Amino acid sequence: MKERIKIIIFGTDTTAGRIFDLFLIASILLSVLLVMLDSIVELRDAYGTIFNTAEWAFTILFTIEYFLRIITIRLPRSYIFSFFGIIDLLSLIPTYLSIILPGAQVFSVIRVLRVLRVFRVLKLIQFMGEAELLKQAMVASRRKIFVYLFFVINLVIILGSVMYIIEGEASGFDSIPRSIYWSIVTLTTVGYGDISPETNLGQAVAAIIMIMGYSIIAVPTGIVTSAMTFTDKSNNSCIVCDDTRQSKNAKFCNNCGAKMNNSK
Predict the structure, then answer these.
(1) Which of 50-54, 206-210, 230-234 has the lowest mean pLDDT?
(2) DSSP characters for 113-125?
(3) Rg of the chain over all Cα atoms, to the nearest angstrom
(4) Which of 28, 43, 138, 142 is most buried as measured by Cβ atoms within 10 A of its Cβ?
């Protein structure tokens, strides 16, 4: 029975598992929508009782799911201390905490973290294989991306300092940090307009920074795309913890200890 429940909750290869995941996705999205609507004063005053009842219903549902995951998994700590396990627990705490501490409602915004659970549940979608590929490509190219970001940080520091010298306090560039803020806003092509150069030289430098800004997205995109080309998608994965470092004929996951689907 535990093995069947585990396959339904963690897996997506069965009809029951897909139905469970679809129901869970709908519940998560509705609960997040409820948190958003509850933040509107007019709606909270008019439908506060309904919102509170619905929130308790979702909390009890997610609590049952949380404990079922702990009970059915072979090594409970592998789920409890995992990223999604912590997210699941944090999304439950505010509602129960409101019973003990009347002023704890302010922490209810933490419930929005439930939306992160959709990424795990969406394993039932065929495109999640591509999502795993993207994750592996990001990990493989992390050093190149770090070097590029380090270059960008140095660039905005230099450009901000140059603009501080060129424009000065009269144009709003009253400090190097504020000038660096302007260079970041300009380089990313956001352009709030709260600070702008007034001298001809400053405007020329700003134009160069704006043109350079168009390459900001292109470079890391090219790095990740290149890494995706050489990423291996053939690894066997665990349905419980999504770990892909499994041997082809493994009977149990070497990360969480769960029974593998290919194990008879």
Answers:
(1) 230-234
(2) GGGGHHHHHGGGS
(3) 25
(4) 28
What are residue 66's phi and psi, to 5 degrees? -60, -45
Q: At 195, is the secondary structure helix, strand, or coil?
A: coil
Instruction: Report whether 21 contacts 124 (CB < 8 A).
Output: yes
- Please give the structure tokens belonging to residue 190: 């956001």
State the Cα–Cα distance between residues 36 and 100, nearest whole angstrom: 23
In this structure, CATH architecture of domain 2-125: Up-down Bundle (1.20)
Q: Are 109 and 115 in contact (CB under 8 A)?
A: no
Among 238, 234, 227, 188, residue whose Cα is nearest residue 209: 188
pTM over 0.85: no
What residues does CATH 1.20.120.350 cover in the chain? 2-125
Tell me the average pLDDT across 169-176.
88
CATH number for the region 142-227 comes to 1.10.287.70
Judge whether 170 and 179 are in contact, CB under 8 Å.
Answer: no
Cβ pair 78, 88 in contact under 8 A: no
Structure tokens at 171: 């144009």
> Where exactly does CATH 1.10.287.70 map onto the chain?
142-227
